[in-house]
Amino acid sequence: MQRFGRVCGVKSFDGLHTTVNEYSEIVSMVITQNKGHDQIGPVLRAVAATAKMFGHTPTEAVYTDSVRADRHAYQQFFPSLLQDVVPVPSSSPFEQFRVPGSWRTVHLTSTTQVNLRFNNIMALRDDAHPVVVGVSMCWPVDVTSGVHGRVALIQIAHESTVYLIQVSSS
């Protein structure tokens, strides 16, 4: 929608809502001016009613980019989403992961340190020995609103070392 839906550089449409059936066939597509439930609600209610009228099974899943914000509205549009729900446990049955004692953690605090470490790692690479790393990134998230900040920390694990690179303080 970057080219379609802009007038003088301003977005005229913000939401594209697509509904598919169990065969991934598009049932409806609605373009809305914003992502508000008041604009898409009547269409989704009609989709649910039409599916029922034609003997289709009730909606079983909805995909959204903002689960916390959209959950209650979609449950109103599709009451079938409330059936046979198995809640996610509040705590994991798995033991918390701990970095093995034989591993070390290295804080890379400058561009020079980052370049030196990763140039050394890449120098180890050849056709017989590919470089294998684990990468993770962390950023702040407000769980109530879903708003998140920039990447704050990059973690890279190679052999028995974890490299920590702080790239933002917020």
Tell me what the structure shows.
With 170 residues, the chain is an alpha+beta fold. It has two domains: 6-82, no CATH class; 104-166, no CATH class. The chain has three helices and eight strands, in the order E-E-E-E-H-H-E-H-E-E-E. The strands form three sheets. Strands 5-8-7-6 form a four-stranded mixed β-sheet, with helices on one face. The chain has a two-stranded antiparallel sheet with strand order 1-2. Strands 3-4 form a two-stranded antiparallel sheet. A hairpin with a 5-residue loop joins strand 3 (15-20) and strand 4. It is elongated.
Core attributes:
four-stranded mixed beta sheet, two-stranded antiparallel sheet, 2 domains, alpha+beta, 170 residues, elongated
List the helices and strands and how they pair.
Layout: E1 6-7, E2 10-11, E3 15-20, E4 26-32, H1 37-53, H2 67-77, E5 104-108, H3 111-123, E6 133-138, E7 153-158, E8 161-166
Parallel strand pairs: 5-8
Antiparallel strand pairs: 1-2, 3-4, 6-7, 7-8
Helix pairs in contact: 1-2
